[in-house]
Amino acid sequence: MTFQPPVSLSEAEIAAVRGWVLAEDAHFLALNKPSGLSSQGGRIKAHTLDDLLWAFARSNGKRPHLVHRLDRDTSGVILAAKTKPAAAFLGKALAAGRFRKTYLALTEGPPDPPKGEVKGWLRRAEIGRESYMRVCAEGDPDAVVAHSRYRTLSASHHAAMIELQPLTGRMHQLRVHMAHLGRPLAGDARYGGPLTLAGRTAQRLMLHAASLSFPHPEGGERRVEAPLPEDFRALVAAGLGGGVEG
What we know:
about 20% helix; RluA_PseudoU_synthase; EC 5.4.99.-; isomerase activity; isomerase; RluA family pseudouridine synthase
């Protein structure tokens, strides 16, 4: 009997997701997720990245499974495990804080100071059908600690490119922390971000998972990088003249 996956994908979808592969071996698959695609679940009746992983199913019905998630409008590196042992290993490494994630973001100007860390308490709030994270006091019900590092890479009168590193894994924490610093991310309407930058429309959340370093099941560490998507590059060119200075 021929194995039939539970999710039916079009040839175009299969070609697309296979074209997003950044690196892979027998244990993992790293993909460059586009903005606008949910990692899992979601209310939109469309295939998620988790559904699209059926494009990599083997004849025995086994297929990769996501190790972590990215917000729907965030682009960039996302990791999937190809086997159950790899999933267990990578899941434990993620929980132990052994993943190092680096994001790039655009804001209307640099934060003050231009680099530093943000550490404090957040709590989840539901407004209608949407979920938000809010800065709160340590003693608030359901408060969780969130810790991020940031660094301004390049800035002009119109925009700034910020490097962000989440040291904890809370929902929306980079977005909330930048808003807390008075520099919400471009295109982030949920947390008060500007919808235009240097006279150009920010058509989506300008947040990109640029690199991911993680321990490998066979030992050592792997680092995977995702190039900036075209819409991000266009806004960088408009606001910063196309350069990112280290």
